[in-house]
Every structure is written in structure tokens, then in C-alpha cells.
Write a structure and sequence with these properties.
The chain has 23 helices and 4 strands. The chain has 554 residues and is an all-alpha fold. Among the domains are: 87 residues; 112 residues, no CATH class.
């Protein structure tokens, strides 16, 4: 080696020594911390942490804040009236809404269980409903974990599925029954519809295990039969999606023997048939009510069909559209792919035909997109993103991961806002202490009062033990509901004569008219002065005693 070579080698060694990063105590500590986090962040631990945060916020919502009870115009009050009635009369409940000799579609296994919990535990119906909401939340967590494991066959699936269902939404997800975003569940888990939504994942997991022969068949057969039967009785509309998805897996799951397909399908069919023996009503008879037309029924508001609203609700879920070309070739996700196409088509056609429940299909369009998004994310984590997504650069994937983390934090913050400042980011009705306000109003009325109330006034009264002339919700098992609904709208329509209003009130035995001043139009309020002086036990309530015909000159 020459002197020049020796000198060059020395310079290179010197350069390497200068560039060498020797570990420092701080750097070694950071490395150890990252390694410890990686070792600890197993799929089960991550899922458990997410479930714990979800359940903690649910418990605080249901037992402390109770955001649902801060709105007058909420279905909560109808369910509260039903639980009250079952707690009083057990197996022989009366109609707590109209006082008729008729059953109610709310007399379900779920409401019966809550009523007996209230009766045997000597607790109020609000506490029983809160316990029920917490049970729905636990079923949701269990269903997501079970379905995620069996459908995706990936240990990370439950954690990714939970995060996607709760947080893969636009910045201000709608708080509405059927929409299962994090903050919406803090309101909606009181309702039977959300129970059936949670049970859907349990039922689908049972179907898949039956088809694949995972474990003993008998427990899955019994579980599937019980869930389908209970769901069809409890909420027929959401149960239709549960059944359709289950049958979709039966038909589309690859590599399954025909005998297994037939067995799973027969369990579902027999469970549906068994519901006709439910003593209070036949849930299959409610199908015609579900296909009713017109926006006035079931709140089929037109904003559900605004393209900008749909895009805003979907938010980051639309990212999965990049991977649809690749997912379309994946046999394991044929059910959500085909269900997405069929559900979206039914949503559009139902909107055109003005079928009232068609807006509920939108939430299931999102559900299918979420199931596909989870598959795409799991494939990307495994290093094989679906075709279409494989065009993204590593920097783009890092940006997507950062965006997902920020999305989870944002949706959690929105859920927290629902607890610290309920309904702040919504266009809903003003917040009130409804229980206290309504109790104040009821204290001024005789126990035998029958209320002809507008919207919220009619909704809350049965939960406080008073009958109403009409509820601003369909009561399909009531033989007089159609006539009541027609008279209800006619009574509060501007321009109806005083004598006509008096005839309507006396036809249904109404003793008092009640409304909230922020809900009833001003013209009708002025016209109701002819009935007599309106009293205001508490703002914004107005109560008018129905006069005798001679007092109004009729």
C-alpha cells in the first residue's frame, strides 16, 4: 500500500468516526420506550383500550349526563312510557299512549326485560333504560370483536373494525338512530334499533362459524335462532338488515358445503316463523307500515338525499373507493360488496318512490363501506394493499396513517363534547331539563287529564302517566291511529275553525290542549286563544283547558 492509499484510508476512517452516532442515555431511553410500546401494543391490548374508552364514555353518558333526556322531541319518552307500563302491570300491560284496548309494537322481549328490571329492582324507568343502554354497548363491543375475528381472520381486525365503525365518519356525524358514530351511540343506545344493530354482528359471527364449522355447532345454532327471533320482534326494520346480511353470507361465503348453507338458512327462516307466536303482536304484520309512503311518516327528511350531506357523513370512508377494483376480486368480501350495491340501489329507488323508511338504508350503505375499508386497511398493514391503493407512495400511506389517528382523536373529542356540552354541534331542538319541566306541567293537571298535544307535548306526556289524543309517531297496532293522526294534524293546522277544533277535541275526549311555543306556528297559537286563556306552568309550555261547546258558541 502506498503512502497515498494509507492517507486516503485514514481520512475515510476519520470521516466514519465523525459520522458515527454514539448512543446517549436519552436516545437509548427513547429506543427502549418505543420497543416496549411495540411489544405491549398487541391486537388484544389495542382493542381492549379502545373498548375501555368507549364503555367509559357510554357509562358517563347514560348514568350521569343522559343527553337523550335533554330533548323534548325524542323517542326516548315513548320507550319510557312502555317500560313504566310493563313495570306496573307485568305480563298484561295496557296501552299507555291512547288508553285503548290495543297492544303496542314496543311490547318486545327487550322492553319486557327492562320493565321487569325496574319492577323487581325497585328502580325508576330511567335507571332501567340506562342499564339497557349500557348492555347494548357491551353487546356491541362483544359483537364487533367476535365478527371481526371470524370474518377477517386477522388478529388486528377487531381493533381496526371498532375504530372504523366509531370514527370513520365526517367531521360532524349525524346524531340519529341508525347512525352508529361514536357520539351518536351516546344518544342512540337507549333504543331497540341499536340493540338489534349490535346483535347483528353477533348473529353474523354465528352464521360464519356455522358455515365454516368453527367449534361446536349447537351453541351457534341456538344463538342464531334466539338473536334472529328476538331482533325481528324488537325492531323489524333493523332485523331485516340482519337477516339479509346473514343470508348473504350463506349464499356468498366461498368454499362452504351445501348442507351447511341449507342448515344456517333454515335456522334463520324458522326463527322468523317463530316470531308469529309472540303474544302481543305479529311482527310480520308490520311490514306494510314500514313501506308507507310520505315524509310525514318515520321522519323521512329530504336532507338524507342531499349529495353533499351524504359525502359529509361518509368523510374518510370514501377512501375505500380507491381500492374497490382490487377488493372486487377478493372472494372473502363478496357479501359487503354486493350488499353495498344492492343497498345503495334500494336507498335511491326508495327515495324516488318516497318510501318512508328508505332513508334508514343510508346507514347500512355506510356499514358496507366500513366493512370494506377495514379489509383494505388490514391488507395494507400486511403489505399487500388492494389494487388501486397500491399506487400510493410510502409517504402517502404515512399521511393516511396520520390522518386516521387525527380522525380517531377528533371523533373521540366530539363524543366528549356530547357529554360536556350536549347537542352543541347539532341543529336539534333547544336543550331542556325535560323531566323536571314536564313534571311541573303535569302537577297542574288532574290525574284523569287527556292531552291533545302538539309534537313534543304529545311525546312526553305518556311517560308521565297521562294519555294523549295522538302521538306524532305511527302507532300501527292502534285501530284508531289513522283517524287520530288525521284529526291531530287538522286541529293544529292554521285556519281550522274553532268549532271544528272543538269537535275534534271532544271526539277523542281531550281535556286539555298543550304545546311548546317554540314548536307551534304563531298563527295557530293566536287562533287557539278562542279556546280560552292559555296558562304557562313553565316556559315554553302553554296549556289550555278544552271548553264546553256553549262556551265557544258552537
Amino acid at each position: 500500500m502506498t503512502d497515498i492509499d494509507t492517507h486516503v484510508t485514514a481520512l475515510r476512517c476519520d470521516s466514519l468516526l465523525r459520522d458515527q452516532s454514539f448512543p446517549t442515555p436519552r436516545r437509548e431511553g427513547g429506543v427502549r420506550l418505543r420497543q416496549r410500546i411495540r411489544r405491549s401494543a398487541t391486537p388484544d391490548v389495542v382493542f381492549a383500550l379502545g373498548a375501555a374508552v368507549y364503555l367509559l364514555l357510554c357509562a358517563f353518558a347514560f348514568f350521569v349526563v343522559r343527553p337523550t333526556t335533554l330533548l323534548y322531541f325524542a323517542d326516548y319518552w315513548e320507550h319510557r312510557a312502555i317500560v313504566n307500563e310493563i313495570a306496573r302491570h307485568g305480563l298484561h300491560p295496557l296501552d299507555p299512549i291512547y288508553g285503548e284496548q290495543a297492544s303496542s309494537r314496543q311490547y318486545t322481549p327487550w322492553s319486557s326485560a327492562l320493565g321487569y328490571i325496574a319492577q323487581l329492582g325497585q328502580i325508576g324507568s330511567d335507571t332501567a333504560l340506562a342499564l339497557g343502554a349500557m348492555a347494548v354497548s357491551l353487546v356491541f363491543i362483544g359483537g364487533v370483536h367476535s365478527f371481526g375475528r371470524v370474518f377477517y381472520r386477522n388478529p388486528w381486525a377487531p381493533a381496526v373494525l371498532l375504530a372504523t365503525l366509531l370514527c370513520a365518519w365526517g367531521p360532524l356525524p349525524l346524531i340519529w338512530t341508525g347512525f352508529y358514530a361514536f357520539r351518536s351511540q351516546l344518544h342512540g343506545n337507549y333504543y331497540p334499533a341499536e340493540l338489534v344493530f349490535a346483535l347483528t354482528f353477533v348473529a353474523w359471527a354465528s352464521v360464519l362459524r356455522l358455515l365454516r364449522g368453527d367449534g361446536r355447532a349447537v351453541p351457534h345454532l341456538v344463538s342464531l335462532f334466539a338473536i334472529v327471533a328476538c331482533s325481528v320482534i324488537t325492531h323489524p326494520l333493523n332485523a331485516a338488515f340482519l337477516v339479509a346480511g346473514g343470508l348473504g353470507f350463506v349464499v356468498l361465503e366461498p368454499g362452504v358445503a351445501h348442507s351447511r348453507r341449507f342448515g344456517a338458512a333454515m335456522v334463520i327462516v324458522l326463527a322468523i316463523a317463530a316470531t308469529s307466536f309472540w303474544p302481543y303482536f305479529n311482527p310480520l304484520s308490520l311490514a306494510s307500515a314500514g313501506l308507507a309512503r310520505g315524509q310525514a311518516t318515520f321522519n323521512n327528511f329530504r336532507f338524507f338525499y342531499d349529495p353533499m350531506f351524504v359525502i359529509a357523513m361518509a368523510g374518510p370512508t370514501l377512501f375505500v373507493l380507491l381500492g374497490l377494483p382490487g377488493l372486487a376480486r377478493n372472494r372473502s368480501v363478496r357479501m359487503p360488496l354486493i350488499a353495498l350495491a344492492l343497498t345503495f340501489a334500494a336507498y335511491v329507488i326508495g327515495g324516488i318512490a318516497d318510501i318512508s323508511v328508505s332513508h334508514r338504508l343510508l346507514a347500512y350503505v355506510f356499514l358496507m363501506l366500513h366493512l370494506l375499508l377495514v379489509k383494505a386497511v388490514l391488507e395494507a398493514i400486511a403489505g399487500r394493499p388492494p389494487r388501486g391503493m397500491d399506487l400510493l407512495t410510502p409517504r402517502a400511506w404515512r399521511g393516511a396513517a396520520l390522518g386516521a389517528a387525527l380522525m380517531i382523536l377528533w371523533q373521540t373529542a366530539m363524543a366528549l363534547q356530547q357529554l360536556t356540552n350536549p347537542w352543541a354541534s347539532t341543529d336539534r331542538y333547544p336543550v331542556h331539563q325535560v323531566e323536571a319541566d314536564t313534571s311541573t306541567v303535569v302537577a297542574t293537571l288532574p290525574p284523569s287529564a287527556r292531552i291533545l298535544g302538539w309534537e313534543s307535548a304529545a311525546l312526553v306526556m305518556p311517560s308521565h302517566g297521562l294519555y294523549v289524543v295522538a302521538l306524532p309517531r305511527p302507532m300501527p297496532l292502534s285501530p284508531s291511529d289513522a283517524a287520530r293522526q288525521a284529526d291531530y294534524r287538522r286541529f293544529f293546522a292554521p285556519g281550522t275553525s274553532t268549532c271544528r277544533r272543538l269537535t275534534i277535541a271532544h271526539r277523542w275526549g281531550a281535556t286539555h290542549v298543550a304545546y311548546l311555543t317554540n314548536e307551534l306556528n304563531k298563527r295557530t297559537q293566536r287562533e287557539l286563544v278562542a279556546f280560552g286563556r292559555a296558562t304557562s306552568p313553565i316556559a315554553p309550555w302553554r296549556v289550555i283547558r278544552v271548553p264546553a261547546p256553549r262556551a265557544t258558541g258552537c
